Structure formats: C-alpha cells, structure tokens
Amino acid sequence: MAYLAPAGTVMSLSEIARGLISGAFSDTPRRLLVEEIRRTSGLQHCWPICSGRAAMTLILRAMRTAAAAPECDEVLIPAYTCYSVAASIARAGLRPRLCDVDPRTLGMDSAALDKCDFSRVLAVVSSNLYGLPNALSSIEDIARRRGVFMLDDAAQALGARLGGRAVGAFGDAGLYSFDKGKIICTIQGGAIVSQHGQLSAILANLMEHIPPTSSAEAFVNSAKLPIYAICLHPTLYGIVKRLPFLGLGRTQYETRYPIADLADVLVGVAAELMKRLNELQEQRRRNAEQLTRVLGEIQGVILPAIQSDAEPAYARFPLLVPDPHLRDRAVGALDRAGIGATGSYPRALADVPEVVQMLRNPEAPMPGARQVAAQIVTLPTHGFCPPELGDRVRDLLVGCLPALAIAQSQ
Ligand SMILES: *Cc1c(COP(=O)(O)O)cnc(C)c1O
Fold first, then answer.
1. What is the pLDDT of residues 324-341, one digit of tens each?
2. Rounded to the nearest whole angstrom, what is the distance from the C-alpha of residue 407 to the centroid of ligand 1?
3. Does 126 contact ligand 1 (Cβ within 6 A)?
4. Which of 161, 167, 247, 295 is most buried, by the most CB atoms less than 10 A from its CB?
C-alpha cells in the first residue's frame, strides 16, 4: 500500500549523482555550499560538518573555551527537544538544565526561561522544532541580559526566518542539520554558522584540526542516498518502513557519534540541494498552509501559534490533540490510512533517564513539555504530499473524536 513518509527531502537520482561526482572531483561545491549557507543565514562564517550533533558539540566546546567563568558548565535547553541536543551537551563535557516549553508555541516559555537559575549557565539553546521559529528575539534578549551565550539550533529550520532574520542566525552561533527528515538531506551532515568574533576564531581553529570523515563512512552514506531518494516515494515507502533494521523513526539517546568533517561527496549533494532550497520551501509551505486551513476548523485540534513576522520552514506539520489516548488513536488511524503521522519525540527530556541523571535540578516539574510529549501529532509536508492530504487527515481525525468522547465518559 502507498504510504506517505513522515518527513523527507524529495530529490532526483540525477541531482544526487551530480552532487556526488562534483563533490568527489572538485573543490567548487564546498565553496558554493559555504557561500549559499552564508547567504541564507546572513552570517559571515560557515563550516560544513558531519552532523548537527557534531556541530553542537563543537559550538559548546568553543563557548566553554571563550567563557570567562570556568564554573559555568550548564546548558539551558527546552525540556522538549531532540534527544541529540542533550547527548551533544554530555559529549561536550557539560550538563543540561531544562526550561519548560509552552505547549501553544512548542518553544521555550519566555517567562519560565527568565525565572531559571542562570548561576552556572554557559549557554541557552533554542529548538525551532518542525521549522517553526521560537521567540528568538526574546531568548536573545534574556541571554544578553544574563551574560550567557545563545546557540540557535536550526537543525530543522534551514531557510526559516523571523522578522526577516534567518533562524540559526540569532544569538552567537547556530547550526543546521542535513540528516534524514530535516530540510535538506545528505543522510548525515550539517553546518555551523557564526559571526561572533572570538567564537568564530575558536571554531575556525577547531575545524582546522577536525579529522576527515572515513572513506568507509562516506561510501556508505553515498550509497544510502539514492536508496533513500527512491524509497521516499509513497509506493516503496510502504514496504521499506516495515524493515526493522532501518530503524526508521526511532528516537535514541546516543553520545558515541563521529565528530568529523563533512565528506566531499556529501558536500556536493548538499550544494546541489541548496540550489533548490526555495523550491523545497515553497512545497512545504504550501502543504502546511493547506493543512492549517483545513485542520484549524476541527474542534479539539490545537495548531501551534506562529508569530506574525515568522516564515516557518515546516520540516513537519505539528498539532496537539486533547489527550494521549486520542493521540495514539489518531496516529494509528492515520498510519492505517497510509499517512506517516508520528508522536514525535516520545518523552520530555525530564523523563529520559540518561538526561535526568545529568540534571542538577531533576525534580523541577516540566508540565508543558510533558503535555507536548503526550499530545503532539506530526504530519508530513514534503513534496509527495497530495493536494487532498488536508481533507483526508480531517476526515480521519474527526473519525477519532467520537471515540475520545466515549473513552472519557467511561
Ligand atoms: C536533528 C536535530 C539535531 C541533531 O542533528 P543531527 O544532524 O541529527 O545530528 C539537533 N537539534 C534538533 C532540534 C534536531 O532536530
């Protein structure tokens, strides 16, 4: 049965081949990629790297080196974000501190952030989940006022903007990811951006000493790219998603990842995809607009508030339903209908044992983050979404609502 993947980058075999070959045989794609990301972010410096996690680890190490106060070993992060964020903090030898999120925006609650204990905080990190810009100006203000760094995590938000400024360019340094399910995909990959004088100098030095990606790893990722592109097609995705060894959609806490340069071949593919960033963006935005229009009318479905001056990137389309039972029912019904809906990250970071173990304030309640973890549904926005997706999702969700009413009355 045809199945719409939960997220992905639609790309052609010819552009993958062009990217791999040009990357392998010339330095031009690296220069082009750096130029394109500098132009998109509006920042002066860009370093391609082998993953978003590696980017975050290096940025945090640079911040630690640049920080005046050696006792500051905490990184303030949203209590609902990608587990890799906490893993990168551990890998940099630092500890997370959690700030609750506002379920209405899916970003850090600015009032909660302002009340956090900053006494040992080195940096605060945004999340911009699903490509929706967080309240970045206010996070930036709070970071400035408290004298801490801000890292703008735009792993899912390449191309998104807020008040005309690129997401990823707020604060002192930012990152993008090119992993599966992000905005552009090289299987694994990412980039660091910054124009902070001292941090940029430290990062430039760190990047000069970074090892190259092993040729085995580069080969494996190059071989996976055409498979990924073919299998993203709805006729094949229905088959491959059942193959357990692919580990699709699994969220794991893992600190053993390589920290290396982005392989030349993958640089080539990223450079090719950057040429189409606007087109990819337009597709996702159109699909998101359609979903917003149709689903906004359903009673019980809560769409996240988007700031009026935001241009989201919509790596996925998130919504909240009133309770976890309905969420599981909705994801199940959508899945059976061939629509790759997900419950996103299964837990708030306050409920991930590896993270809790590192916290200095493990008992702080994170009701907003727990609510999001229990009630979120994400929908696909990529180029394979059909024009009637909104209508189909509406019918399936409306079909789940009576079931909820019955469950609640029992
Ligand atoms: C994916 C992601 C990362 C990590 O990026 P990788 O390239 O997968 O290592 C970091 N932060 C957020 C919010 C992400 O979604």
1. 999 999 999 999 999 999
2. 36
3. no
4. 167
